[in-house]
Amino acid sequence: MKWRSRTLVTSVLFLCTRLVFGQPPDVRSAAHAVDEHYNHLKTFKAAFTEIYQGDGISRTESGTLWLKKPSRMRWEYHVPREKLFLIDSQTAYFYVTGDRQAKKTPAKNLDDLRSPLRYLLGKTKLEKELEGLSLAPDLTPLQPGDIVMRGVPKIMKDRVSDVVLEISPSHQIHRIVIHGVDSTTTDFRFSQIEENVPVQDSLFRFTPPPGVDTIEDSQVTQ
């Protein structure tokens, strides 16, 4: 009888845990929920922190990110120095405040880890973009309640070994960690997220400051 009582108590506790915390997430349904969330957005704004480590370098930068359909993005870096990375759907621009030159290149030719994020609104299909997409229970999320997934990107395979995504219960991406084949790590963290807020089209047009020349350069990167 004691054994049966213990078994019954254990079963009840297990059932209660399931009811309180929900079923363990399924990677397919979790990915689909993220897709649905971002594919219904028209604009996105967030504070970001970008942490780069590799080649004996450790660098932390922060600023504000804007996305707007179709395929427009603006990264305003404020710390440790002011700079701008912008894509207006067709052309990418990079400018560091105080420089005499700004760089530009066709967006289709851009080889930059930030570039694919411009497709986040309206064209998100995680399972198609990341091969072997799976849950990563071995990785601890930064924010309690989030889940972590990992996969191998079909694009940039020559540069990226895998991508880690931290997803909130409301299906927002809180973090993207990109591991390079050269053992570098680029960690993007997003906070103060605002969705479908008014964003002017002019924010995605690059106007060089007086005295600054804009030059063609395939190496539009920081």
CATH architecture: Clam
Rg, alpha carbons: 21 Å
Main sheet strand line-up:
7-8-9-10-11-1-2-3-4-5-6-12
| Unreliable residue runs | 1-22
Q: What is the name of the CATH class?
A: Mainly Beta
Round the mean pLDDT to the nearest integer and report it.
88
Helix content: 10-25%
For the largest beta-sheet, the strand count, sense and barrel status come to: 12 strands, mixed
The gross shape turns out to be globular
* Domain module count: 1
- Number of helices, where a helix is a run of at least 4 consecutive DSSP H or I residues: 3
What does this structure look like?
The termini are far apart. The N terminus is likely disordered. This protein has a single domain, classed as outer membrane lipoprotein receptor (LolB), chain A, CATH 2.50.20.10. It is α+β, with helices and mostly antiparallel strands and 222 residues long. The chain is globular, with a radius of gyration of 21 Å.
